[in-house]
C-alpha cells in the first residue's frame, strides 16, 4: 500500500500540516487577530505578555525581548504582530534562514528605528556569527562592525536605537543558552483545546460570512489537531464544499461529509497517518516493528513516517515508541475498528512504555542500535535496518 508519496517537505502540503501552505499566507493574514484581547486561548502566555507590554508602556520604554516557542500553526507570528500593534510600534520581519552572515543582521539592526519590533522567525536557524552579534545587540544595543580582512581588520562600534526582538522557534531546545537568556520573557504555546478551536472557528466563520451550526463547529474542531491554522484551513475546505453543494447553512453532517471527502477523519488523521496505523495493526499484529520496516510497508521514506506522521500519532496515544520498535496502542485498534489480538505479547509492552514516549520525545527513544539486523518477518523477508 502506498499513500501517494509524501516527502518530508511535501508533508507541509498535507491538509493537516501545521505549517502554512504557500498559497494560504494571504488568507491567513486576513484571519489573524490584531489585538491581544481577540487572541483565543493560551491564557497564561497572553496574561503574562499583556503585563510585559503594559509595564513597558507605563515606563515609556521599549518592551523586553520576547521569545515564543511551540509547534507550527499555534499563533507565534500572530502574537509577534500583536506585540507591535499593542506597542504602537513599527514591525520588521525577518527569519533565521534569511540571516546567514553577521553582515545581514548588521544591515537590519542598523536600520531599525527607536522602539521598532524586530520579528525573527525560526530564530534557531540563524548562523553562529550572526547569533553572536545578536547577543550584544540585545544586551547593549550595540554592534561591532568589522571592516577589512585579516590582520588589517578593525571593528567599529555602532550604537543602536532601543528595539524589541520577538523571536519565534519551533525548537526552543536548539537555542543556545546565552541567546535564550537574553530574552526577558519566554512564552511557550501549547496545543489548543477543542473548545478554544471552536472559538477560533466561530471568529473566522464570521469574517468569512459562513453560517455553521454549533455541532458543525465541534465537528471541524475535533479534526483540527489542536492547531488554529489547521482549523481555519479545514473551515475553508468546508466552505468550498458547501458552495459547490449549494448549502448556505452547514450542519455537522455536511461538515463531516466535506472533511471525509478531503480524507481527514474524525480524529484529524489523514491518509498517511491511517496507513501507518493500519500497517502496524494488520501487517505486524500491533508490533513491535522497526521504523524502517514500517516505512517500507507503507511505501514511504523513513523520515516521512518519523517526522510527518508519528508525532501526532504518539501525542494522540495511538502509536508507541519502545526500545524494540513501534507498537500500536489500544486506541489505534479501536480507531480503525479492529480487534486487538488477545494472545499477543505486545499487550504486555503497553505497560512498559516509558512516560516520555507519550510526550513524543524522540531524542531519548532512538535506542535501537544503528545498523543492526532485525529479524522481522515481513512476508518472510529479512530487513536490514540502516537507521533507528
Ligand atoms: N489564538 C488564536 N486565535 C485566533 N486565531 C489564531 C490563534 N492562533 C493562531 N491563529 C490563526 O492561525 C493561523 C496561524 O497562526 P500563526 O501565528 O501564523 O502560527 P505560527 O506562527 O505559530 O506558525 C493564523 O491565520 C491565525 O489567524
Ligand atoms: Mg509563523
TrEMBL record:
Signal peptide per UniProt: none
Matches recorded under SUPFAM superfamilies: P-loop containing nucleoside triphosphate hydrolases, Winged helix' DNA-binding domain
Sites where the protein binds DNA: 321, 326
Sequence ranges assigned to domain AAA+ ATPase in this UniProt record: 62-195
A Pfam family that the UniProt record links to this protein: WHD_RuvB
Top-level class of the enzyme under EC nomenclature: hydrolase
Residue positions binding Mg(2+): 77
Subcellular location: Cytoplasm
EC number: 3.6.4.-
Molecular function (Gene Ontology), one example: hydrolase activity
Keywords of the record: ATP-binding, Cytoplasm, DNA damage, DNA recombination, DNA repair, DNA-binding, Helicase, Hydrolase, Nucleotide-binding
Residues covered by region (Head domain (RuvB-H)): 266-388
NCBIfam families, sorted: PRK00080.1, ruvB
Domain text: Has 3 domains, the large (RuvB-L) and small ATPase (RuvB-S) domains and the C-terminal head (RuvB-H) domain. The head domain binds DNA, while the ATPase domains jointly bind ATP, ADP or are empty depending on the state of the subunit in the translocation cycle. During a single DNA translocation step the structure of each domain remains the same, but their relative positions change.
Subunit structure, as described in the record: Homohexamer. Forms an RuvA(8)-RuvB(12)-Holliday junction (HJ) complex. HJ DNA is sandwiched between 2 RuvA tetramers; dsDNA enters through RuvA and exits via RuvB. An RuvB hexamer assembles on each DNA strand where it exits the tetramer. Each RuvB hexamer is contacted by two RuvA subunits (via domain III) on 2 adjacent RuvB subunits; this complex drives branch migration. In the full resolvosome a probable DNA-RuvA(4)-RuvB(12)-RuvC(2) complex forms which resolves the HJ.
The protein's role, per its UniProt record: The RuvA-RuvB-RuvC complex processes Holliday junction (HJ) DNA during genetic recombination and DNA repair, while the RuvA-RuvB complex plays an important role in the rescue of blocked DNA replication forks via replication fork reversal (RFR). RuvA specifically binds to HJ cruciform DNA, conferring on it an open structure. The RuvB hexamer acts as an ATP-dependent pump, pulling dsDNA into and through the RuvAB complex. RuvB forms 2 homohexamers on either side of HJ DNA bound by 1 or 2 RuvA tetramers; 4 subunits per hexamer contact DNA at a time.
Family: Belongs to the RuvB family.
Name this protein carries in UniProt: Holliday junction branch migration complex subunit RuvB
Biological source species: Enteractinococcus fodinae
Amino acid at each position: 500500500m502506498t499513500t501517494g508519496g509524501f516527502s518530508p517537505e511535501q508533508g507541509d502540503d498535507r491538509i493537516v500540516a501545521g505549517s502554512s501552505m504557500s498559497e494560504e499566507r494571504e488568507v491567513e493574514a486576513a484571519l489573524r487577530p490584531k489585538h491581544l484581547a481577540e487572541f483565543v486561548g493560551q491564557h497564561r502566555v497572553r496574561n503574562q505578555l499583556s503585563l510585559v507590554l503594559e509595564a513597558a508602556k507605563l515606563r515609556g520604554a521599549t518592551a523586553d525581548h520576547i521569545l515564543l516557542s511551540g509547534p507550527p500553526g499555534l499563533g507565534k507570528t500572530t502574537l509577534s504582530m500583536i506585540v507591535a500593534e499593542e506597542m504602537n510600534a513599527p514591525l520588521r520581519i525577518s527569519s533565521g534562514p534569511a540571516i546567514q552572515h553577521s553582515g545581514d543582521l548588521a544591515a537590519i539592526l542598523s536600520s531599525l528605528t527607536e522602539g521598532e519590533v524586530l520579528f525573527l522567525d525560526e530564530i534557531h536557524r540563524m548562523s553562529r556569527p550572526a547569533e553572536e552579534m545578536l547577543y550584544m545587540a540585545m544586551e547593549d544595543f550595540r554592534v561591532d562592525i568589522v571592516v577589512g580582512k585579516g590582520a588589517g581588520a578593525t571593528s567599529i562600534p555602532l550604537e543602536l536605537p532601543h528595539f524589541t526582538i520577538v523571536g519565534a522557534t519551533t525548537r526552543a531546545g536548539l537555542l543556545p543558552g546565552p541567546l535564550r537568556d537574553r530574552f526577558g520573557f519566554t512564552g511557550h504555546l501549547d496545543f489548543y483545546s477543542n473548545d478554544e478551536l471552536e472559538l477560533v472557528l466561530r471568529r473566522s466563520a464570521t469574517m468569512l460570512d459562513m453560517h455553521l451550526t454549533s455541532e458543525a463547529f465541534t465537528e471541524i474542531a475535533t479534526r483540527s489537531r489542536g492547531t488554529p491554522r489547521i482549523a481555519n484551513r479545514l473551515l475553508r475546505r468546508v466552505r468550498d464544499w458547501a458552495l459547490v453543494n449549494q448549502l448556505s447553512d452547514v450542519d455537522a453532517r455536511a461538515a463531516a461529509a466535506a472533511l471525509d471527502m478531503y480524507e481527514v477523519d474524525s480524529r484529524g488523521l489523514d491518509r498517511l497517518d491511517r496507513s501507518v496505523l493500519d500497517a502496524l495493526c494488520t501487517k505486524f499484529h500491533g508490533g513491535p516493528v522497526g521504523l524502517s520496516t514500517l516505512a517500507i510497508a507503507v511505501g514511504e521514506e523513513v523520515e516521512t513516517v518519523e517526522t510527518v506522521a508519528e508525532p501526532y500519532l504518539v501525542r494522540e496515544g495511538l502509536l508507541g515508541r519502545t526500545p524494540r520498535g513501534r507498537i500500536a496502542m489500544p486506541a489505534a485498534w479501536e480507531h480503525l475498528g479492529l480487534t486487538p489480538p488477545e494472545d499477543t505479547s505486545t499487550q504486555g509492552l503497553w505497560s512498559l512504555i516509558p512516560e516520555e514516549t507519550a510526550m513524543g520525545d524522540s531524542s531519548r527513544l532512538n535506542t535501537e542500535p544503528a545498523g543492526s539486523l532485525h529479524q522481522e518477518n515481513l512476508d518472510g523477508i529479512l530487513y536490514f535496518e540502516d537507521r533507528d
